[in-house]
Design goal:
- The chain has helices at about 15-20, 35-40, 60, 80-90, 100-115, 120-125, 155-165, 185-195, 215-220, 235-245, 265, 285-300, and strands at about 5, 25, 45-50, 70-75, 90-95, 145-150, 170, 180-185, 195-200, 225, 250-255, 270-275.
- With about 300 residues, the protein is α/β, with parallel strands linked by helices.
- The two termini are about 30 Å apart.
- A 7-stranded parallel sheet has the order 8-7-6-9-10-11-12, with helices on both faces.
- The chain is elongated and about 70 Å long.
- The protein has 2 domains: about 5-95 and about 285-300, NAD(P)-binding Rossmann-like Domain (Rossmann fold, 3-Layer(aba) Sandwich); about 100-275, 3-Layer(aba) Sandwich (Rossmann fold), CATH 3.40.50.720.
- The structure holds NADP nicotinamide-adenine-dinucleotide phosphate (NAP).
- NADP nicotinamide-adenine-dinucleotide phosphate (NAP) binds near residues 99, 154 and 255.
Length: about 300
């Protein structure tokens, strides 16, 4: 008999089809009445499959006595109560590495778009304004400093790319690393030293609002905030205020605190570049992520070592 899985997110066909070969899947995300579904299947559930942005609350996991594995389709697992899972012996897997290049590319795109005001420049041309005069001058990259908050897999890939654009790299994390970049032991000091502050650390309670009003003030009126990590890391209201008062040059954001809601003040601001969480959104990468996500469930169900365990 196939093991049973609860699916907590809308997942693509190229993930669901191979998953259904491994498990009987129950669509919790789309279920009209989640309580009825849980009443019917909760005692049979062996696996949870979810996306990076979805949440698996402890209250739900407590109703699944046979749960053995949570497989996240994404590298960020801030929606998983990891300590609880560790205590209960529930294994947690994610999809690291395969998305690193795509997400780093989007970070660089946001740096370029924000510094050169490319979104605004395109809107300027399409509105027919070019005939009335040239687009205002923007900011160069060469010689500037990019401060990376979270120099992990994605942070390092961003650092390599921005080094090639002539930027100096600095970083903050909980530990200094054996790298050629300058380490700062607090976010505010990193922001003070940076022209671009690039958020690339995990989300969750440990990093909630790490980028607050004080950090944005330290980044300063010539500074730009880039966030490709999680919306929760940035205090969005403080960001709106900094943009409105001109105490920040601009921002490039792929992620938001309450996705898919984006604050009206950001939607109306020409100083920000806004993307709908597309960091890993390419055919090639999403397929590689799907293979890892299903591969972890399959490995677990057949007693093989997990491909990418979180702990
Ligand atoms: P990673 O390799 O684990 O790197 C995370 C980095 O953050 C590490 O260098 C770590 O360094 C640092 N860090 C961890 N906790 C921290 C804390 N409390 N304060 C400061 N720094 C901290 O992860 P990754 O693969 O690069 O992915 C990073 C994040 O990107 C993911 O967690 C995910 O949320 C996000 N992401 C977004 C998208 C998108 O579509 N926009 C796609 C993929 C990933 P220390 O251990 O030294 O602190």
């Amino acid at each position: 008999m196939k093991p049973e899985a609860l699916v907590l997110a809308p997942l693509p066909d190229f993930l669901m089809q191979p998953l259904q070969e491994v498990c009987v899947c129950h669509d919790y995300f789309h279920a009209q009445n989640k309580d009825i579904l849980l009443n019917e299947v909760s005692t049979h559930i062996h696996a949870i499959v979810m996306a990076g942005g979805s949440v698996a609350p402890v209250e739900l996991l407590e109703q699944l006595p046979g749960l053995k594995i949570i497989s996240v389709f994404g590298v960020g697992y801030d929606g998983v109560p990891v300590d609880y899972c560790r205590q209960r012996g529930i294994q947690v897997t994610n999809t690291p590495d395969v998305l690193t290049d795509d997400v780093a590319d989007i970070a660089v795109a946001l740096v370029l778009m924000a510094s050169r005001r490319l979104g605004q420049a395109e809107r300027f041309l399409r509105a027919g304004e070019w005939a009335r005069g040239a687009f205002p001058l923007a900011q160069a990259l060469r010689g500037k400093t990019a401060g990376i908050l979270g120099l992990g897999r994605i942070g390092k890939a961003i650092a390599e790319r921005l080094s090639a654009h002539g930027l100096k790299i600095a970083y903050f994390g909980r530990h200094p690393q054996q790298v050629a970049y300058e380490y700062y032991d607090c976010v505010k000091k990193l922001a003070t030293a940076s022209d671009f502050l690039i958020v690339a650390c995990p989300g969750g309670m440990a990093t909630k609002h790490l980028v607050n009003a004080e950090v944005l003030a330290a980044l300063g009126p010539q500074g730009t905030l880039i966030n490709i990590a999680r919306g929760s890391v940035v205090d969005e209201q403080a960001l709106v205020a900094a943009l409105e008062t001109g105490s920040l040059w601009g921002a490039g954001l792929d992620v938001f605190e309450n996705e898919p809601q984006v604050p009206a003040e950001l939607m109306g601001s020409d100083r920000v570049v806004l993307l709908p969480h597309v960091g890993s959104a390419t055919h090639e990468t999403r397929l590689a992520m799907a293979n890892l996500c299903v591969g972890n469930v399959a490995a677990h169900c057949s007693g093989q070592p997990l491909l990418t365990p979180v702990f």
